[in-house]
Design brief:
- By secondary structure, the chain is mostly helical.
- It has helices at residues 21-51, 58-85, 94-127, 132-135, 138-163, 181-185, 193-227, 231-259, 266-288, and strands at 2-3, 6-7, 11-14, 91-93, 173-174.
- The strands form two sheets. A three-stranded mixed beta sheet has the order 4-3-5.
- It is found in: Cell membrane.
- One of its GO terms (cellular component) is plasma membrane.
Amino acid sequence: MGTGNQTWEREFILLGLSSDWDMQVSLFVLFLITYMVTVLGNFFIVLLIRLDSRLHTPMYFFLTNLSLVDVSYATSIIPQMLAHFLAAHKAIPFVSCAAQLFFSLGLGGIEFVLLAVMAYDRYVAVCNPLQYSVIMHGGLCARLAITSWVSGSVNSLIQTAITFQLPMCTNKYIDHISCELLAVVRLACVDTSSNEIVIMVSSIVLLMTPFCLVLLSYIQIISTILKIQSTEGRKKAFHTCASHLTVVVLCYGMAIFTYIQPRSSPSEVKGAWQKLLGQLSGFTSKLAT
């Protein structure tokens, strides 16, 4: 594919995490199990919520959305990754790469906004329980969910469009396990400073802004919990938020580390993965002996 004197590759080669065959087989098993657990776990969560009328509440409505996002996000990346672990030629067509970037980036953005929405829901439940049903009515919940899906999708559409308009020239080796935004941008044979600025701004809007909202919500929640007189009441209030807070820390922590530092080398990230996997393999071997 060409435009003028610039060449666009019809396919990209994903370098993955390791070129060692035994390691790739181990990774195939690990990610296959992870994918199956993710799909089945979220499927049963959604099914249980649908079947139990007692769970037809705002919290579980947002949890259903989050489960659908998790399954879709995993499906946008892991099946292709599994195929590449067992393939000699780890190629992905240009169109498939663009589609994977759009869906994975969009679903990631949707998840971060949903986590902020769920934090607001927990804030209302703990800090204003008597008016919870009035504030978190069905119309508001639907609008908040729609806002999450639309904001993540629009951001992804913009990012994907401007990324795949860059001239890739003869660069086709993506130093990553998937068509990840920063890894694809670095294939361009032109200055990508403006693209990295857009990525930074997008990260602030879809990562830092929801993160700040989550932080403010939990400051208010913790303040309210500390004012509760009974120990049992404090435990119950904290238990209401504990699982959501754990997910927030994991998701936002990894995303901020990845995207707020756009000039980090993909090779350094892959090297860290390889080191971690090597340590896990060694630990597993010790357990086996």
